[in-house]
Amino acid sequence: MKKSWNNSPWRARLVLMALPLALLLSACQSDKKPSGATNSPEASVADAHNHEAAGDLYTCPMHPQIIRDKPGKCPICGMDLVKKSKGGGAQAQPSASLQNLLKSPDATVVSTQATVYPSTGAPDLSLTLTGRVEYDTRRTEVIAARFGGRVEKLLVRYNYQPVIKGQKLLEVYSPELVTAQQELIFILTQDAENRTLLRGARQKLRLLGLTDAQINRTIATRKPTYSVALYSPYSGYVVEQSAQPGAGLPPPPTPEAGA
């Protein structure tokens, strides 16, 4: 006949004895830690908070799990430990040589603007430029013959030759001038008392370019001058001359050309 353990009082005793034993073993295992074991992240965080309450913390930039309460070397890579920022990362302190280079955005913008110190005085400027020198048209004069003819003698030979006022420039032969002189001589011979005709004949010679001295000489000699001299009414330098000995006189310039 087999015994049944289901309702046996020994089975109840064994179950009650096993329960305290299991509780005892579980408590022992929770208290024991193997030597050299690394703390859990929760424990490391709690330990770091405890150190932060005590003072500054130093950590390795490459191995943030290394936390010390004073400066030193990282036991893994040998790098210097740096102060840990409040946010949890490593706070690298700039060296003293970089303090002057670090600026705020406003200071950076202002520093890029060029500044000039006001001063008084004549500026010393030296410019090297290319250009072309032109004659002052306000002081340029044109000497042109008022009659046609041929150049008998030219006294101005080259450009930039100096000329003074009243200097003889050339001698010309002009049939028009000879005719005007002969008209004056004819009036003097036939009707010397006619002042109106005399004034008209003298004015015609003046308009052709003869001076009063040349007209008076014609009246005194009662002979026409076939080679008439032209004199300069200005002083200056010759910059261009188009007359040539033996050639005809160039035509008078238009008002635009002579301006």
UniProtKB/TrEMBL annotation:
<dbReference type="Pfam" id="PF25919">
    <property type="entry name" value="BSH_CusB"/>
</dbReference>
<feature type="domain" description="CusB-like barrel-sandwich hybrid">
    <location>
        <begin position="141"/>
        <end position="249"/>
    </location>
</feature>
<keyword id="KW-0614">Plasmid</keyword>
<dbReference type="Pfam" id="PF25869">
    <property type="entry name" value="3HB_CusB"/>
</dbReference>
<dbReference type="InterPro" id="IPR045800">
    <property type="entry name" value="HMBD"/>
</dbReference>
<feature type="signal peptide">
    <location>
        <begin position="1"/>
        <end position="27"/>
    </location>
</feature>
<dbReference type="GO" id="GO:0046914">
    <property type="term" value="F:transition metal ion binding"/>
</dbReference>
<protein>
    <submittedName>
        <fullName>Efflux RND transporter periplasmic adaptor subunit</fullName>
    </submittedName>
</protein>
<feature type="domain" description="CusB-like three alpha-helical bundle">
    <location>
        <begin position="176"/>
        <end position="225"/>
    </location>
</feature>
<keyword id="KW-0732">Signal</keyword>
<dbReference type="Pfam" id="PF19335">
    <property type="entry name" value="HMBD"/>
</dbReference>
<dbReference type="InterPro" id="IPR058791">
    <property type="entry name" value="3HB_CusB"/>
</dbReference>
<dbReference type="GO" id="GO:0015679">
    <property type="term" value="P:plasma membrane copper ion transport"/>
</dbReference>
<dbReference type="GO" id="GO:0060003">
    <property type="term" value="P:copper ion export"/>
</dbReference>
<dbReference type="InterPro" id="IPR058790">
    <property type="entry name" value="BSH_CusB"/>
</dbReference>
<dbReference type="InterPro" id="IPR051909">
    <property type="entry name" value="MFP_Cation_Efflux"/>
</dbReference>
<keyword id="KW-0813">Transport</keyword>
<feature type="domain" description="Heavy metal binding">
    <location>
        <begin position="58"/>
        <end position="84"/>
    </location>
</feature>
<dbReference type="GO" id="GO:0030288">
    <property type="term" value="C:outer membrane-bounded periplasmic space"/>
</dbReference>
